[in-house]
Design brief:
Layout (H helix, E strand, L loop, with lengths): L4 E4 L2 E7 L4 E5 L2 E4 L3 E2 L6 E8 L5 E5 H9 L8 E4 L12 E4 L1 H10 L14 E3 L4 E2 L2 H7 L7 H8 L3 E2 L2 E5 L8
Antiparallel strand pairs: 1-2, 2-3, 3-4, 5-6, 6-7, 8-9, 10-11, 10-13, 12-13
Length: 176
């Protein structure tokens, strides 16, 4: 897909691209603004030197700028969802509007390196002999998430959880 630029409604001297870049564009030329990454959520944001009502520079999430410029304003009750490429891809093809429930389900079940499926790829074995390729798959098998401390504790210390004994599967050392 080629890069297309659109003017940002709230900041007419700035443009956002269909690939998720933001630039200052006046008199036919401009420069791309540096992107900051939120330390906990991983969302990309840009700082506009235009002062807000509180006298401080304004910040905006890149994904919100892209979706508003290319798809339209956000319908009431919906949020911006990132597609299979995760939060690091702010291209218009990776963004859509959806509900909080859809966002949570995407987070829990997406097959992307940025999400839970690959969160902890260590294989595990259950007491009945069933082998799971990752801690995330293990957690989903009992209806919880990989971030659940109870399942992590059960695997780490070979304990019972939800009727099964859990154990980390250690691959044999390769011969030297």
């Amino acid at each position: 897909m080629s890069e297309v630029w659109a003017t940002i409604d709230d900041w007419p001297d700035y443009q956002v691209s269909s690939l998720g870049r933001v630039r200052y564009a006046v008199y036919g030329y401009g420069f791309v603004l540096p992107v900051s990454i939120h330390p906990y959520q991983g969302y990309h944001s840009v700082r506009f030197p235009v002062l807000g009502a509180n006298g401080r520079p304004r910040w905006a999430y890149v994904h919100q700028l892209v979706i508003e410029a290319f798809i339209g304003s956000r319908p009431q009750g919906l949020i911006v969802l990132h597609g299979p490429a995760g939060v690091s891809d702010n291209s218009v093809e990776n963004l859509s509007y959806g509900t909080h429930r859809q966002n949570r389900l995407d987070f829990l079940y997406r097959d992307s390196k940025d999400f839970v499926v690959e969160f902890n790829p260590k294989p595990c074995v259950r007491s009945d002999g069933v082998i799971f390729e990752s801690r995330s798959a293990t957690a989903r098998s009992v209806g919880t998430t990989a971030t659940c401390s109870a399942i992590s504790h059960a695997i780490k210390f070979n304990k019972y959880y939800k009727g099964y004994r859990w154990q980390a599967l250690i691959s044999p050392a390769s011969p030297s």
